[in-house]
Amino acid sequence: MKNIKSSMLLAIITILFLFACSSKKEEAGSSANKSSNDELVFASTKDIRDINPHLYAGEMPAQNIVFESLVMNTTDGVKPALAESWDISQDGLIYIFHLRKGVFFTDGEPFNAEAVKMNVDAVVDNKEKNSWLNLVSEIKETKVIDDLTFEIVLKNPYYPTLEELALTRPFRFISPKSFINGTTANGVSSYAGTGPYVLTEHKKNQYAVFTENKNYWGEKPIIKSIKWKVMPDHQTMLLALEKGEIGLLFGADGDMIDSDSFKALSEQGKYSATVSHPVGSRAIVLNSQNQITKDSKVREAFQHAINKQMIAEGILNGAEHVADTLLAKSVPYADIGLKGKEYKKEKANALLAKAGWKMGKDGYRYKDGKKLDVTIYYNADNAQERTISESMQNDLKQVGASLNIIGEEKQAYFDRQKTGKFDLMYSLSWGMPYDPQTYVSSWRVPSHADYQAQAGLDKKDWLDHTISDLMIEQSEKTRKQMYRDILTYIHNENIYIPLTYSVTKAVHIKALKGVGFNVSQYEIPFEKMYFE
Q1: Bridge partners of 43?
Q2: What is the secondary structure of 248-304 as a DSSP string?
Q3: pLDDT score, position 25
Q4: pTM as predicted
Q5: What gap in Å lies between CA 52 and CA 512, rounded to an integer?
Q6: What is the rounded distance in angstroms from the CA atom of residue 25 to the CA atom of residue 350?
Q7: Which of 56, 238, 409, 462 has its CA 20 to 30 A from that of 108?
Q8: DSSP state of 225
Q9: How confident is the model at residue 34 (pLDDT cuts 50, 70, 90)?
Q10: N- to C-terminal Cα distance for the chain?
Q11: What is the pLDDT of residue 11?
């Protein structure tokens, strides 16, 4: 009996030892490939940085799962979020929001009308940072009616009010306790929101961990933890995916992996790969203030010199469709019958000759002893823009134009937009729900490349005033005509070379389900995902 007990004990110890070894081996690998809903590992080229929802340093997908808005943009229009319902006065000047009961920030502070007022006022007071969003300058007054009723009074009846309140930033809500000296303009003391996840750990430029908000007022996320892993190098991302160290890649080209890698992963059959509907426009903006590109004939010639089909098919592997116009016809107010500029080298050559640029013996054009030489700047972190630039460089050489290519660190690239010191730059429309109203409205902001590129146009003052009037126009019929006038003028002035209509992509392990796309390309719907 004693021997039997000893044998049984030995067997049990052996089984436990083998189980422990097996568990440790599983733990040594990433949780990315586990089918439990404990953790999803997501890879990004960027750190989340400061996710203060009222400022712009942080990554928007991170802000979106921590902080919420009064209303949300969906494919079916604006829907309730932290506000259960709302009323709009007949003259369009007063919006009254009825807030949800029993909602708390993750630091325990109640979400109520006082907290809403404090947040909205903080955004409006920080006009320097938020002037790009027209709603900020249209808010005249905010009022607390009672604990769960909040009122916004506008200066003018601003038609995109609800859509702009629903954007990922800046009208998201953070706990009053997070404010520093009554404001968020100079930073916050904590990241207490009302969203489905809480930021629980952050090691700069390494990773961030978001865990489930156990007291979330809405439908709780199935995946309990999101690990945001920083991988600046795209090849490192691919290797990590192959090793099972990450479970999801998500974003536009340049933010995750290039089109060649995406295509290869899609064809492997080992992963699931998804592409969104077109979300924005990829274009080149031409500076109307600079010596060469201020000539409308040169700008038009460049339109016909670029082989967009080569970019769409040869570089982007057919994932994006050629863009004929700055905004796709599917964008509200943009289906106005504008004709695209076809790839025709003969026409490009004729236009340049007409503009006085004569072909030299070296294959480049000259005018008054000056070479037809321009420079394009791109974000050096982007996986595709260098390749697209090289394709354009070859196209322009065929018509006698020299294109220099300069990649810059992200912040330097953005700073260049503000100064207007560029010939050509990349320009992405923002996609729904920003297009067309918020995107077009931003053309009046000097810190944007759009404004700088348009500044040399004869009718720039008319353009800016028309956009301002458009934003407060209540007649749908008049609004349509105003958009037609604006978009037609920009199209005819050849300020933009539309290349393709951009998409968002996702690659993930097959066990991960519920991977889709929000209306905004800047959000990742982690809260809808689960493992099977």
Answers
A1: 229, 249
A2: EEEESTTTS--HHHHHHHHHHSSEEEEEPSP-EEEEEEE-TTSTTTTSHHHHHHHHH
A3: 37
A4: 0.86
A5: 29
A6: 68
A7: 56
A8: E
A9: low
A10: 46
A11: 42
